[in-house]
């Protein structure tokens, strides 16, 4: 299926499914436990209806906005996602270049397969680095210093991962990290020749910003074991304050769902929140970001910028989020399907589809600027 024959994000998902070995497709696509939250993230948008104004002179639509101190051409950007090289050899560089081409922000994950410095060198577009506060505080601090040196615009601290969620699809498909050519994986690799060719040419799937640290520890510990050991279940809000000492730029806390935590994040020094449940990959049974938004906006007022992260597959989803008080949305799978389907060109196709839907939907809603997408543009359906 060519990218041009993909008419929406669902089509990109089908194209990704066709190109990737099954364990990798399900690694992107899946969530935790029964995947209730994964489904809910998108379905909850259906609880809201848009309220169009007609005859509103929509000859010129302007999607520009400002998020995290960055002027963006779009009110949505790319969420941080790890291990992009698993999905396409153009990896994080392809995604970051696509984001820059569309005038939006790229968030590089701490679990990325590309170095902080290499993303910065490849694009002059707005950039954010997603960090975890690892047990190895020296490495955490080193990340911050490297982001400063490479002129990242913002730092994003993910806080919903004291440990990994229960991803049963990965266990069923035998997803192993890094991927290995085993008897079990052979059939799915063979069914994905384009992917397998690149895999065999360059089977290095290191987590690029961490490898040097593991190497310095010497023999006896693998990269994945090291990473698994680094998640610190004892973290608290005081640790956010610790991080704040080293970084005085925009700080986003990612993974907040309640007004109580939103206030704590503000008090710990956050400038923005990504309202997120990690795309339904962590606590199954937690609410969709879109339904958490309004109570959080009511609690923090304009003190924090709010980003809805999860379930976004359509321009109308973004409009509903903006109308309910979001400053922007971010997308994970929507662009990862594109990356898997066609590298940078696939990410560009994902961004193009969402942008064009948004342009059309803004006109149909009777709005010409992001600031026009106000609460009266949306209503909650009676439950
Ligand atoms: C993620 N996500 C994620 N988040 C994060 O903070 N650090 C990470 O390394 C990753 N890695 C990652 C890998 C994959 C394959 C997926 C699908 C997701 C979560 C991501 O940033 C975002 O919160 C969700 O993807 C948002 O939901 P949607 O847009 O995928 O529905």
From TrEMBL:
Superkingdom classification of source: Bacteria
UniProt domain FMN hydroxy acid dehydrogenase: residue ranges: 1-383
Positions bound to FMN: 80-82, 109, 130, 158, 254, 276, 309-313, 332-333
Catalytic residues (UniProt): 278 (proton acceptor)
Molecular function terms from GO: FMN binding; oxidoreductase activity, acting on CH-OH group of donors
Pfam families named among the record's database cross-references: FMN_dh
Keyword NAD part of the UniProt annotation: no
Binding site for glyoxylate: 27, 132, 167, 278, 281
Keywords from the named record: Flavoprotein, FMN, Oxidoreductase
Record-linked CDD domains: alpha_hydroxyacid_oxid_FMN
Annotated family: Belongs to the FMN-dependent alpha-hydroxy acid dehydrogenase family.
Protein's name according to its UniProt entry: L-lactate dehydrogenase (Cytochrome)
Species annotation: Panacagrimonas perspica
């Amino acid at each position: 299926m060519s990218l041009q024959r993909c008419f929406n994000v669902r089509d990109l998902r089908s194209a990704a499914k066709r190109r990737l070995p099954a364990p990798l497709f399900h690694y992107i696509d899946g969530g935790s436990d029964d995947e209730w939250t994964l489904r809910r993230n998108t379905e909850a948008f259906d609880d809201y209806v848009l309220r169009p104004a007609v005859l509103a002179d929509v000859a010129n639509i302007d999607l520009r906005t400002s998020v995290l101190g960055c002027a963006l051409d779009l009110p949505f950007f790319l969420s941080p996602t790890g291990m992009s090289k698993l999905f396409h050899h153009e990896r994080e560089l392809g995604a970051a270049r696509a984001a820059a081409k569309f005038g939006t922000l790229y968030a590089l994950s701490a679990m990325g397969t590309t170095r902080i410095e290499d993303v910065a060198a490849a694009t002059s577009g707005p950039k954010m680095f997603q960090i975890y506060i690892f047990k190895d505080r020296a490495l955490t601090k080193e990340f911050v210093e490297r982001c400063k040196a490479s002129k990242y615009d913002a730092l994003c601290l993910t806080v919903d991962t004291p440990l990994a969620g229960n991803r049963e699809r990965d266990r069923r498909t035998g997803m192993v990290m890094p991927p290995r050519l085993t008897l079990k994986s052979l059939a799915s690799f063979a069914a994905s020749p384009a992917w397998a060719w690149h895999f065999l040419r360059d089977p290095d799937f290191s987590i690029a910003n961490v490898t040097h640290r593991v190497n310095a520890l010497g023999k006896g510990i693998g990269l994945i074991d090291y990473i698994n050991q680094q998640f610190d279940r004892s973290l608290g809000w005081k640790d956010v304050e610790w991080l704040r000492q080293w970084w005085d730029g925009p700080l986003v806390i990612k993974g907040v769902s309640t007004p109580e935590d939103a206030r704590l994040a503000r008090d710990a020094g956050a400038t923005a929140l990504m309202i997120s449940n990690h795309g339904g990959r962590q606590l199954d049974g937690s609410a969709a970001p879109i339904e958490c938004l309004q109570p959080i906006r009511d609690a923090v007022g304009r003190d924090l910028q709010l980003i809805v992260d999860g379930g976004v597959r359509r321009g109308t989803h973004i409009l509903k989020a903006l109308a309910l008080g979001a400053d922007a949305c971010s997308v994970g799978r929507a662009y990862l399907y594109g990356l898997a389907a066609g590298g940078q060109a696939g990410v560009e196709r994902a961004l193009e589809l969402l942008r064009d839907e948004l342009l059309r939907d803004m006109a149909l809603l009777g709005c010409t600027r992001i600031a026009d997408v106000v609460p009266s543009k949306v209503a909650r359906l009676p439950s």
